[in-house]
Amino acid sequence: MGRYTGPVCRFCRREGIKLFLKGERCYTDKCAFERRPYPPGQHGPHARIKFSDYGIRLREKQKVRRIYGISEQQFRKYFEMADRQKGITGVNLLTLLERRLDNVVYRLGFASSRREARQLVNHGHILVNGRMVDIPSYLVRVGDVVEVKDKSREMDRVKAALEAVARRGVPSWLELDKDRFRGVVKAMPNREELTTPPIQEQLIVELYSK
């Protein structure tokens, strides 16, 4: 099954919350959700939707899937991995998603969105511990060094993303050396920092547990 490549602003409107899928555009008055804060489609402005308990859980799962830009099959795989690990399944799930290389590239500020970060990884612009890794789903570990390749540091979009990283900040489990286009994974992702947008991972656990 191919990856969705169409417009993504409709996802924010469908979920009724900003998912920050378009980078800096999401912080401006051009944001589609700010201009049309109702579901997409011809009935969107007048839609009165009341979700069942199942519907609420399903929407939460879809929201998280869209935030990280992964398929249903991938998402279920991550859930099964999280369920086998010790600890709280929902937190394990978010930790796995945060450890994806494309997400780490985004969190460090080398890209303005996860979609852009995935493209950087796919095109071989990112090094992990000095070696090129072009797999967006690669899971980083504590101590890994993630950096932009020397030749890729002059790319305008990388420079622009780094200049704007102060707007959202770098999470405490990562350490950014902005001048060297390099970041270090200091610890496992911190659940307390995953608040934008808000996620209720327990609803996802309940959905898959039925």
Largest sheet: 5 strands, antiparallel
- Measured as a percent range, the helix fraction is 40-55%
Q: Radius of gyration, Cα only, in angstroms?
A: 17 Å
Instruction: Count the beta strands.
Output: 5
Overall 3D shape = globular
Distance between the termini: 25 Å
Structural class: alpha+beta
Tell me the strand order in the biggest sheet. 2-1-3-5-4
Strand fraction: 5-15%
Order of helices and strands: HHHHHHHEEEHEEH
- The low-confidence runs, each spanning 5 or more residues with pLDDT under 50, are none
- Give the overall pLDDT as a whole number: 84
Number of helices, counting only DSSP H or I runs of 4 residues or more: 9
Please give a structural write-up.
The protein has 210 residues and is α+β, with helices and mostly antiparallel strands. Helices cover 40% and strands 8% of the residues. A five-stranded antiparallel beta sheet has the order 2-1-3-5-4, covered by helices on one side. The two termini are 25 Å apart. The relative contact order is 0.14.
Question: Quick recap of the structure?
Answer:
The protein is of the alpha+beta class and 210 residues long.
Describe how the helices and strands are arranged.
Layout: H1 9-15, H2 32-35, H3 53-68, H4 72-84, H5 89-98, H6 101-108, H7 114-122, E1 126-128, E2 131-132, E3 145-148, H8 156-164, E4 174-177, E5 182-185, H9 201-209
Helix pairs in contact: 3-9, 4-5, 5-9, 6-7
